Amino acid sequence: MKRRDFIEKTAAGTTLLGFGLSLSSFELAEVKKITILHTNDVHSHIDPFPMDDPRNPNMGGVARRAALIEKIRQENANVLLLDAGDIFQGTPYFNYYGGELEFKLMSMMKYDLSTIGNHDFDNGVDGLTAQMPHATFEFVSANYDFKNTSMAAFVKPYKIFNKNGIKIGVFGLGIELEGLVDKKMYKETVYHNPVETAQDIVLILKKEQKCDLVICLSHLGYKYNKEDADKISDLKLAALTKDIDLIIGGHTHTFLDKPTIAKNLDGKEVLVNQVGCYGINLGHIDFYLDTNKAKSSIGKSIVV
């Protein structure tokens, strides 16, 4: 099956950030605000770090994150809560419960969507499938073809949300599994080129579905050193594609205080963000759209 056919058939501190606009440009127009909250590479960290931890003393923890998310939801009408993968593996909670607790807690926090990271295969693709009944949120991955695996019914290439009349298309991309994950863990999962896949998906979301915002949930990594220069990273993805507004990344555990502004193939601005790992930070990006769908944004990373 061709990649595009697969996609279409299985789809069912604070800084003002760009797009060449400022908030003052919206003064005479009706403005709609969309709030994007996001995490990545939480790695089964349910509890805060202990007080005597040398690097992250008393930081993180699901209870604090849940309270922070709830506070932001009370203050903002149109919120999406997203995750960029590697939910599993990192504490005894995963070893004992196999991901059940992580999915149940994310469901309680009302996550809207997640993509899949390489460590989410650590109990095998069937182990991941076994935990799906505990997740009330959905999963997207456009360049992993799960059609010959038990995960086929649980993953879509993209999902479209409608928030106050704004259409938001969100799709997922995963890192190449070969050489990173044992073949017996991902079985017949097929990896497709993420750049080519992104171009196909964005064409669907922007041109056919008329989405006002396009977001990529990526587990490709923020950027790589010269020895890994051939790897596709989030910054490369931004530069090689069009019409993506925001790339929410994972895998490299990159702590950014605010989103990076990259340029796409058309020279237009793309936000690229990642908030480290272990649930220490929560990403918070506000998009503002006027009646002509012109965009501006404010983004920051919040310590949990």
Q: How is this structure best described in words?
A:
The protein is α/β, with parallel strands linked by helices. It contains 8 helices and 16 strands. An 8-stranded mixed β-sheet has the order 1-16-15-2-3-4-5-7, covered by helices on one side. Strands 8-9-11-12-14-13 form a 6-stranded mixed β-sheet, covered by helices on one side. The model is unreliable at 6-26 (pLDDT under 50).
Concise structural overview:
This protein has 304 residues and is an alpha/beta fold. Helices cover 23% and strands 26% of the residues.
Main attributes of the structure:
single chain; 304 residues; alpha/beta; 8-stranded mixed β-sheet; 6-stranded mixed β-sheet; globular
Overall average residue pLDDT: 92
Residue stretches low in confidence (pLDDT < 50, at least 5 long) are 6-26
The strand line-up of the biggest sheet is 1-16-15-2-3-4-5-7
Hey, roughly how much beta strand do the residues contain? 25-35%
Q: Specify Rg, calculated over alpha carbons.
A: 18 Å
What percent of the residues sit in helical stretches (DSSP H or I)?
10-25%
Write down how many β-strands occur, each being a DSSP E stretch of 2 or more residues: 16
What is the overall shape?
globular
Total helical elements: 8
The secondary structure category is alpha/beta
* Beginning-to-end CA distance, first to last residue: 44 Å
Order of helices and strands: HEEHEHHEHEEEEEHEHEHEEEEE
**Biggest β-sheet: count, sense, barrel?**
8 strands, mixed
